[in-house]
Amino acid sequence: NRRKVKTLAGYLLLFLFSIGIIRYLVDHQNELHHIRYVHVVDIGVLIVLSFLSNILNGLKLFLLIKQSGLKKIKFSRWLEIFMVSRFINLHFIQGGLFYRGNILKRDYDFSYTKTLSSSWAVSWIESIVVFALSMISVFLFGTKKIFDPTPFVLAIVVLSLLLFLIYGLLKHGRGERVLR
């Protein structure tokens, strides 16, 4: 009986998500109208790039989760959990993190704290990388009106961030302690 209730709840959630997506599509016809002017090949490339980006993001978090002690999960199962949680995040901010935490706790006895800290570690690493790339982009392609960094200042900032990251990883043994 409990299993039937869970199955019914799953179908109800799927139905509600479908209604939400349909409502979004109906309410945002003006934005969707612009898609007609995008070439079909470009849409295909965008879909492939989005697919690859999601797989790479899933792999990044999978590597950290494995380092945190979740050894028995296979990548295919992890990718399933990750993709569903990414879909939930599109509609409910950080809702996918709760979903992912609950599944990992229920099926693998993996603590919520480790799930959260692994997600935080990915965000931290991405913030450093994006910041470094932003500084390099501004330096190489920016106009003097917006920002005029000198190569010396840029090099010090990027080098300091990278050294901080390397020091933290070396001190904490490949990140295991950082994630606990």
Structural class: mainly alpha
Low-confidence spans: 174-180
The radius of gyration over CA amounts to 21 Å
- Determine the oligomeric state from the structure: single chain
Major β-sheet profile? none
Number of strands: 0
Estimate the helix proportion, in percent: over 70%
Q: Could you give the order of the helices and strands?
A: HHHHHHH
The best one-word shape is flat
Question: What is the averaged pLDDT score?
Answer: 80
Number of helices: 7
Description:
This protein is an all-alpha fold. It has helices at 2-27, 29-33, 40-67, 75-91, 95-108, 112-141, 151-171. It starts with a helix and ends in a 9-residue tail after the last helix.
Summary of the model, kept short:
The protein has 180 residues and is mainly α. The chain contains seven helices and no strands.
SSE diagram, text form:
Layout: H1 2-27, H2 29-33, H3 40-67, H4 75-91, H5 95-108, H6 112-141, H7 151-171
Which characteristics define this entry?
single chain; 180 residues; mainly alpha; 7 helices; disordered C terminus
